[in-house]
C-alpha cells in the first residue's frame, strides 16, 4: 500500500466505499453483522485467504491440513499489511481460530483478520496490533468441525466473493471487498461521496435557517 491510499482511507467509511462501489458495479460487496474485539480500529489491506472444510482426519491428514501450515502458505514471505480472510463455508457459528494461533498475525504484522466464523480469546486478540472482525466470540474449539483446507483461493462470505489480493475495509458498520485493480478509483470515489455529503449537509443547514417560524406556517 502507498501513503496516498492510506491517506484516502483515513477520510472514508465502509458505507462511503460501498456507495462508491455501487457506482461501478451491481454485485454485492458488503458484509454486515460483524463483531470485533478491537472496537474503534479500522481494517484495511489486501486479502489472503484460508478456506475451511468439514473435518475428517481419515481424508484430511492433520499434519498437512492445519492452521499453522495454511497460515504460512497464505501470507507468504511478505505478510505485513495483509488481511487474513477465513472462510468457514457454512460454519459461521464455529470457532476458526483463537488467540494462540492468531498470534502469528501479530508477529508477522498483519493488518488484520476477517473471519466468517467465530474466534476465541477476544481479550488476547484485543492486545495484538492487528484489527479483527468476525461473527462473534467462541468458547469451544472448532477443529473437530472444520479444518483449514486451502490457502489463497477465491472464497465466498455471505454472498460476497473475495479473491486473494482484493482489498478489505472494515469498521463498526461492516466490511467491503474491493477488486484490487480498482482500489484507487474506488477510494477516490468514496472521497467524492464524502465531499458530496458535506455539500448536502451545508445545503440542508441553509434550508433550516431559512424556514419561517412555526406560527407562520
Helix/strand order: HHEEHEEHEEHEEEEEEEH
Integer-rounded radius of gyration: 20 Å
Q: DSSP strand (E) fraction?
A: 25-35%
Mean pLDDT, to the nearest integer, reads 92
Classify the helix fraction into a percent range: 25-40%
Report the end-to-end length measured between terminal Cα atoms.
55 Å
Number of H/I helices = 6
- Structural category is alpha/beta
Q: Describe the biggest sheet?
A: 8 strands, mixed
| Topology, number of strands | 13
Shape estimate:
elongated
Low-confidence parts lasting 5 or more residues at pLDDT below 50? none
Please tell me about this protein's structure.
The mean pLDDT is 92. The strands form 3 sheets. Strands 1, 2, 3, 5, 7, 9, 12 and 13 form an 8-stranded mixed sheet that branches. Strands 4-6-8 form a 3-stranded parallel sheet. A two-stranded antiparallel sheet has the order 10-11. With 217 residues, the protein is of the alpha/beta class. The radius of gyration is 20 Å and the shape is elongated. Helices cover 30% and strands 26% of the residues. Strand 2 (43-54), helix 3 and strand 3 form a beta-alpha-beta unit.
Give me the secondary-structure topology:
Elements: H1 3-9, H2 14-22, E1 30-31, E2 43-54, H3 67-75, E3 83-87, E4 95-97, H4 99-107, E5 112-116, E6 118-120, H5 122-126, E7 131-133, E8 137-138, E9 146-151, E10 155-157, E11 160-162, E12 167-171, E13 174-178, H6 183-209
Parallel strand pairs: 2-3, 3-5, 4-6, 5-7, 6-8
Antiparallel strand pairs: 1-13, 2-9, 2-12, 10-11, 12-13
Helix pairs in contact: 2-6
